[in-house]
Amino acid sequence: MTARHFNRITTAAVLLFVSAGWLLAPAFAQSEPLSVEWTLAKTGKRLEREALIIVTNAQGQPVSDASIEVKVDMPSMPMMHAVPKATATPAGQPGRYKTKFTLEMAGEWAAQIEVTKPVRTKVVKKFNAD
Ligand SMILES: [Cu+2]
To answer: What tens-digit pLDDT sequence spans the chain (130 residues)?
Structure first.
């Protein structure tokens, strides 16, 4: 093997390595979990709450086109409540979504926020309602 052959093989190997990285990087980035934060606000109606949900990716950028459902329940009272699932809709700014739900009593609640698109992510947020 001449030095020239060796250089060609090295160059080919480096190119292959680099292009594999370029091809695989987006696939890995898409499977990284999303970060889901929320704030709850009271509306005029007793026990009704409006949620503002903020979804960001692993790089901290807002995630648009997310599909989000919120299911609330009381951890201390399994099977006792049946608040309908709430679907969140875009709230005007990238990565922000809003939804409303009405609780059935005051006390400790837990919300399961489930993102099904673009990356499956599930978070649970506990909160107190008075
Ligand atoms: Cu209850």
So the answer is: 566 665 665 555 555 555 555 555 555 555 788 999 999 999 999 999 999 999 999 999 999 999 999 999 999 999 999 999 999 999 999 999 999 999 999 999 999 999 999 999 999 999 999 9
Ligand 1 centroid to Cα of residue 1, in Å, is 78
- Separation of CA 107 and ligand 1 centre (Å): 7
Contact 38, 51 (CB under 8 A): yes
Query: Cα of 106 to ligand 1 centre, how many Å?
Result: 7
Map out the domains of the chain as residue ranges.
1-31, 33-129
- What tokens appear for 99 in the block? 């939804």
Amino acid identity for residue 107 in this structure: G
CATH H-level superfamily of 33-129? Immunoglobulins (2.60.40.10)
Which residues have C-beta under 5 Å from ligand 1, the single-atom ion?
Answer: 74, 77, 105
Spell out the residues 6+ positions from residue 110 whose beta carbon is closer than 8 angstroms to its own: 72, 73, 74, 75, 124, 125, 126, 127
CA of 81 to the centre of ligand 1 (A): 6
- pTM for the full model? 0.76
